[in-house]
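Hi R.,

Here's the input for the adenosine monophosphate complex you asked about:
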Amino acid sequence: MSFASLGLSPALLRAVRELGYHAPTAIQAAALPPILAGADVLALAQTGSGKTAAFALPLLQRLVAAPPRPGPRALVLAPTRELAAQTAELLRELASRLLHRPKVALAFGGVSINPQLMALRGGCDVMVATPGRLLDLLEHNGLTLAGVECLVLDEADRLLAAGFADELHRVLAQLPARRQSLLFSATCPAGVQALAEQLLHEPVRIAIEEAPPQITQRAIQLDRAQRLPALRQLLRDEAWARALVFVASRYTAELVSDKLFAHGFKAGVLHGELSQGARRDVLAALKAGSVQVLVATDVAARGLHVEALDAVVNYELPRSAADYTHRIGRTGRAGAQGVAVSFICADSAENAESHFRLIEKRQGQRVPRECLPGFEPQAVATEAQASGGIKSATRKSKKDKLREAAAKAATDGH
Ligand code: AMP
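And here is the predicted structure with adenosine monophosphate in place:
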């Protein structure tokens, strides 16, 4: 399969060649023809599948084929600023190679609105935004959505999970009824299904099953206190050139990154409270190789793309199966090999073993448990404990001791 056979224009064919895309990915092969034909599309595809180009290429082609009009003529909504920024970057790279160079504007929250308002003064052809900031811009009369011909909801499941449902509906209410709508999502929970029904007209449905075969999943049982030394050993033994370590909070991200740094690792940190500039710098450092291991929270890492990431480590488990899918999807991208390691701590307060089982169940895949030599857990989760609460096999709780004493007294009495 070639891009040429999918109906791309010569200019965009040249652009994909220059980006180093030799052949379309599965989602691109499936989505390009219906989008070019003007159909609505519901596409289920994981991040890393090449989904961004799957809508960016046909969207730009349709835009430049039609006579110029005041914009924005296309609106892309994304759940996070990282994803919005990366999408805008690809659109701009492609647009810069077209004769009429459609103008791509980018807006997200957490930064001053003024530069974004200024940037919109000359108008734009494509608007890429997070929903909340887009509403702010609309309220400031920074733009109008009356000319939108094509709407893209990217990572729709994340948009809804991030609590954007309300904002989304307020934006949708301002769009013209006649338009092309494209909905991309990694998963299809009921909310996404309902949104698709409301939004899409006779959509072409595309499902790319990429329960990523290139990602080897590992689940390592160990005690909480052993996580740092075990991580250091993994980083040394596995010789990962680039690894992303997920933790649950900004505090832990800073702590783990500092400790790794103190042990001589090229460690960086990425979390929601860093400035946009600091995030960009640390991502650039990871790309350039001056950072080997990036310790990140979910919020900051959503939508993040890092070329050739060897490994993802769940130092702390994600809250949901969807987050797990997103986390491990950061490695093994676009055909590369990757490994996803999850630490399962039997002595964790939040019952890690049963939580991880739920994650396995949701993704329909069982990950064999293993122990790292030298880091075997003191506390062992048994099958029975996993469904109740996990307790240490070596230490007894006060209640257990009382129960045992009562049982002993009962036996002694007989
Ligand atoms: P996405 O799923 O859009 O986040 O894309 C994942 C990565 O795959 C990005 O780094 C793209 O540059 C890369 N990519 C997208 N399409 C192709 C392709 N046809 N060939 C090679 N790499 C691609």
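One thing worth noting: Residues 398-413 form the longest helix (16 residues).

Cheers,
M.
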